[in-house]
């Protein structure tokens, strides 16, 4: 059922996918869907819980390693711990459909759909944000929040791969191995967090 739902959500989005279509693709009846998931939102939640667990576990382990060190981690190290597991998974050939589901649901007009995405990642994402904030004390709270927005935007864009840059130039960069993609994204976002603070905003004390 989850595999059928993933493929349909990827093709048609959440609103465009009916439980009837999921049942037809999965070869199950209404009772099975309602017994396991209750409704369509419950089905989406179950899909995210199953698919993001490995990424969350990897991120937790890497962040724990940084927190347990005597020396405070560098901005690049914190970013690497958060970005690398997500991109390693996203670049797996089997992840194309779920990448699209994530991209569509994270900007869905319905708040309850967006909340499913946020809640699946929130515990480890909040831990990451706290550690990254400690590594960037030179930034005001507002500057840090804007740069975090930009980091998420860059990461989501790379994962969704809508082909915009390839259409402007070429797709040579998309042929690079995932380790190079991670290195480029970490370098780019780290430079943003390391840039000077906004002098017009009050500094974090």
Automatic annotation (TrEMBL):
Domain HTH tetR-type: 1-55
Coiled coil: none
Residue ranges of DNA binding: 18-37
Pfam family, one: TetR_C_30
SUPFAM superfamilies reported in the protein's UniProt record: Homeodomain-like (SSF46689), Tetracyclin repressor-like, C-terminal domain (SSF48498)
Gene3D superfamilies with a match to the protein in the record: Tetracycline Repressor, domain 2
Keywords for the protein's UniProt record, in alphabetical order: DNA-binding, Transcription, Transcription regulation
Protein name per UniProt: TetR/AcrR family transcriptional regulator
């Amino acid at each position: 059922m989850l595999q059928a739902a993933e493929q349909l959500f990827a093709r048609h989005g959440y609103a465009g996918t009916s439980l009837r279509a999921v049942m037809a693709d999965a070869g199950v009846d209404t009772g099975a869907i309602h017994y396991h998931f209750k409704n369509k939102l419950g089905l989406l939640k179950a899909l995210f819980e199953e698919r993001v667990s490995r990424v969350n576990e990897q991120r937790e382990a890497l962040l724990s390693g940084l927190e347990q060190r005597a020396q405070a981690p560098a901005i690049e190290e914190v970013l690497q711990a958060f970005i690398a597991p997500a991109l390693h998974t996203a670049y797996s050939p089997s992840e194309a459909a779920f990448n699209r589901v994530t991209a569509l649901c994270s900007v869905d007009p319905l708040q309850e759909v967006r909340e499913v995405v946020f809640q699946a990642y929130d515990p480890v994402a909040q831990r990451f944000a706290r550690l990254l904030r400690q590594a960037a004390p030179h930034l005001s709270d507002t500057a840090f929040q804007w740069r975090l927005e930009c980091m998420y935007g860059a990461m989501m864009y790379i994962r969704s791969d809508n082909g915009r840059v390839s259409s402007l130039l070429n797709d040579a960069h998309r042929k690079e191995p995932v380790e190079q993609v991670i290195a480029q994204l970490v370098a780019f976002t780290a430079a943003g967090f390391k840039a000077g603070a906004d002098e017009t905003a009050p500094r974090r004390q």
